[in-house]
Amino acid sequence: MNLPELRIDNLVARVPIVQGGMGVGISLSSLAGNVALNGGIGVISGVEPGFNEPDYLKNKKEANLKALRMHIQKARDICKDGILGVNIMVVLNNFEEMVAEAVKQKIDIIFSGAGLPLKLPQFTMGSDTKNVPIVSSGRAAAVICKSWHRHYGVVPDAIVVEGPLAGGHLGFSEEEIKHPSFQLIDLLKSVLDTIKPYEELYRKKIPVIAAGGVFNGQDIANLIQAGASGVQMGTRFVATHECDASDEFKKVYLEATPDDVQLIHSPVGMIGRAIRNKFLIEVEAGKKKPIRCLCNCLKPCNPAKAPYCIADALINAQRGNFDNGFAFAGTNVYRIKEIVSVKQLMDELVSETKYHLQFIEK
């Protein structure tokens, strides 16, 4: 049983797995480059990639642009001809600058969610960079397709549909997360139905990539059978040697239990999924107060009312300082038992997927 390739226009990934973009600093050049090297699509997070630059606090904009250029080049040095993307959230205050820089560096794909990337095509026009929005519903996919068709005469090169079991910031309310109708399979089918008229109009396939809680080959096989062209996975890739996070960050993943995985109210006004720790317990108790806004990174954030600076907390966690930070993670993080290489993880997922596909096909 051959594993289907993931085709996004003229880009062909022999393994239909996209590594999710995880910030701050969790998926940078090392992780993205090695995923691309092993046949998947590696993704660099565009959230404050310059946090380790010496001039970050004094000149955040230039530090982020410089770091983005550096990580794209370093990832290219690792994977040569592999497929690389950058995840750039719509809610970033430097969204337009980061997109323009990624296109200038000839990135293969821009993944964009946390809002509707309605203006994304204007920055990629005339380039080979592919536009891949991240949505949480068929309705959001419809709005994007309609807007892009009307204003730019294009449709997405692919779409990621992310379900409520993902880690990080989620595009759902707490009620939606708990409602049976918001399962990933149902959301996938809704997006597939939504894009059919646009596929016919443009005479091209718009691959749909399923994300959120995807853990093993059986999950991948089930989603492919349901119509997905591939999957996006984040949490599993944190537990790799090549992940850009600190060893202390990865250790938190290994030690997580089912009861540790919780929903939180992010300072940016969104629901998120994270691993419960002392820091988050103190936030719940009202003990955390913002000392300063570290970098004015996200449009919805109001520093005057935020219980803490989320950029500061995530940077601390990336470095292993969990007294002053926390880790985002998907709902299945507690199932991870060891740190492996990206190659070992990819080989395992491919083998499992092939095994389960043969029974689905029958």
Brief rundown of the structure:
This protein has helices spanning 29-37, 60-79, 95-104, 120-124, 138-152, 174-178, 184-202, 217-225, 235-238, 247-255, 278-284, 310-318, 342-361, and strands spanning 6-8, 11-13, 17-19, 41-45, 83-87, 109-112, 130-135, 159-162, 168-170, 208-211, 230-233, 261-265, 271-275.
SSE inventory with pairings:
Layout: E1 6-8, E2 11-13, E3 17-19, H1 29-37, E4 41-45, H2 60-79, E5 83-87, H3 95-104, E6 109-112, H4 120-124, E7 130-135, H5 138-152, E8 159-162, E9 168-170, H6 174-178, H7 184-202, E10 208-211, H8 217-225, E11 230-233, H9 235-238, H10 247-255, E12 261-265, E13 271-275, H11 278-284, H12 310-318, H13 342-361
Parallel strand pairs: 3-11, 4-5, 5-6, 6-7, 7-8, 8-10, 10-11
Antiparallel strand pairs: 1-2, 9-13, 12-13
Low-confidence stretches: none
Strand fraction band? 5-15%
Rounded to the nearest angstrom, the radius of gyration is 19 Å
Order of helices and strands: EEEHEHEHEHEHEEHHEHEHHEEHHH
Morphology call: globular
**Count of DSSP-assigned helices:** 13
Distance between the termini: 11 Å
